[in-house]
Write a structure and sequence with these properties.
Blueprint: H1 4-14, E1 21-24, E2 31-35, E3 44-48
Antiparallel strand pairs: 1-2, 2-3
């Protein structure tokens, strides 16, 4: 699980890259964050998974 403040800080940084950020949520997969920077012809996929077993 991720805290809302952690996600807010992370997305606060991404808003400088792109106007559109897409989230993909699933119960069996890490959170996938898709970012398409405004002035570049590329797509960035970030994966965020919780630490298990600590």
């Amino acid at each position: 699980n991720f805290t809302l403040s952690y996600l807010k800080d992370m997305f606060g940084q991404l808003k400088n890259l792109s106007e559109v950020v897409t989230l993909y949520l699933s119960t069996d997969m890490p959170l996938r964050i898709e970012v398409t920077p405004n002035d570049l012809n590329l797509e960035i996929d970030l994966y965020l998974a919780p630490m298990i077993g600590v």
